[in-house]
Automatic annotation (TrEMBL):
Keywords of this entry: Oxidoreductase
Family note: Belongs to the short-chain dehydrogenases/reductases (SDR) family.
Protein name, as recorded: SDR family NAD(P)-dependent oxidoreductase
PANTHER family: DEHYDROGENASES, SHORT CHAIN (PTHR24321), SHORT-CHAIN TYPE DEHYDROGENASE_REDUCTASE BLR2146-RELATED (PTHR24321:SF14)
InterPro entries in the cross-refs: NAD(P)-bd_dom_sf, SDR_fam
Pfam families according to UniProt: adh_short_C2
């Protein structure tokens, strides 16, 4: 499949985990891909891997919660690629903080990365998409938004904001041929998740039992959903939230 032949895509948080799978999927289908991520070494590695596979790729290291740095990084990638047709905002943090340990500072940090970082990325590409009268924006929420799972109050609040922002973006961009949709991943098996949680295997066992499709979620599952929403085929789909969780819950 070459749905993205000639298309130019930027993926924030695209150097590792689900974001890396998304960048790879878009590249495999013909897109030139720009990656923004906090870890410069990971960015270099991801770009080298994409190029080794025959893709056109560029990278920039930046913290998406730093508005000036993120704007400059995305601007550099737009210049390097020669434009931007697709934006996927995968960058995010998901601390597990018991509510009793929550603070305004914790909430602000999570909001700055997950919600403000998403807004900054969109603001950086929207003028280019408006000029081209074409664009695909895919944001990332979370299936936890639907159930308010503890102990993730800051994370869930930020992802609720992303869903709301995406719905507004659909109306903002629609007249100029720009769609905006949100993917809501369920529990997905990544190296970071396994490193962060000693009880990951037990967590997966519990969650998989509640799914209609009884297996662990993979980064490739999310990447496939993103690729659809980022494609020309999804031109009449906007403002929607697509849950990718094996049927762990239904919208």
């Amino acid at each position: 499949m070459h749905r993205f032949a000639g298309r130019l895509a930027i993926v924030t948080g695209g150097a590792r985990g689900i974001g890396r799978a998304v960048a790879g999927r878009l590249a495999d289908e013909g897109a030139a891909v720009g990656i923004v991520d906090l870890d410069a070494a990971a960015v270099d590695g991801a770009v080298a891997s994409l190029r080794a596979g025959g893709a056109t790729a560029a990278g920039a290291a930046a913290d998406v919660s730093d508005e000036d740095a993120a704007t400059a990084a995305i601007g550099d990638l737009v210049a390097a690629l020669g434009g931007v047709d697709v934006l996927v905002t995968m960058a995010g943090v998901y601390p597990w903080v018991p509510f009793e340990a929550m603070s305004a500072d914790v909430l602000r940090r999570v909001l700055d990365v997950n919600l403000v970082g998403t807004l900054t990325a969109v603001l950086s590409v929207m003028p280019h998409m408006r000029t081209a009268r074409y664009g695909r924006i895919v944001t990332v929420g979370s299936g936890t938004f639907l159930i308010g799972a503890p102990p993730q109050s800051a994370y869930i609040a930020s992802k609720a904001g992303v869903v709301g922002l995406t719905r507004s973006l659909a109306n903002e961009g629609g007249p100029d041929g720009i769609t905006a949709n949100c993917v809501l991943p369920g529990l997905i098996e990544t190296e970071h998740l396994k490193e962060q949680h000693d009880g990951a295997d037990e967590l997966f066992a519990q969650v998989v039992r509640s799914q209609a499709v009884p297996r662990r979620g993979r980064p490739a599952d999310v990447a496939a959903a993103v690729a659809y929403l980022a494609s020309e085929e999804a031109g009449f789909v906007t403002g929607q939230s697509l849950l990718v969780g094996g049927g762990d819950r239904f919208l």
